Amino acid sequence: MIRIFDIEWWREIFQSLSRNKKRSIFTSLGVIWGTFMLVLLLGAGMGISGIVTKQLGDSSQKISFISTDATSISYKGMPAGRWWEMRYMDLEEIKKIPGIRLAGAIGYSNWGGKMVCDGTSYNISYTGYDAAFQEIDKISMIAG
């Protein structure tokens, strides 16, 4: 057991530090730098966490989105690069999974669509939300 008030123990420590000055300095700098980086990264992580939580607002923290895309590997003779899509009946099957409280669908077009209003044509992208999304992601409707 180390006794803090043991003079011999302290002499041995100071003797070791005075003999190996470079090693002692570099070790001290390493400990100080490591502590500084730990505090800095923990602070940054807490700050980012606060920002993300603030940005999400009323959104649930236990929310997951599934989107479709082209496949990257072939499977059972089907080629890679094929497109797949989800249908509304897939959403009904997802709702049957134990632990899923709510499920809703979003329909959107990134390809854009053509809208004509008062003789003026616009290229737009659009998003449509399922009624269940009002509980999942609190959407504030402006009009409509």
Automatic annotation (TrEMBL):
Question: Pfam families of this UniProt entry?
Answer: MacB_PCD (PF12704)
- Does the record bear Membrane in its keywords? yes
> Which UniProt keywords are listed?
Membrane, Transmembrane, Transmembrane helix
Q: Which residues form the MacB-like periplasmic core domain?
A: 24-144
Q: Where do transmembrane segments lie in this chain?
A: 25-52
Protein name per the record: ABC transporter permease
Organism from which the protein derives: Candidatus Merdivivens faecigallinarum
**UniProt lineage:** Bacteria, Pseudomonadati, Bacteroidota, Bacteroidia, Bacteroidales
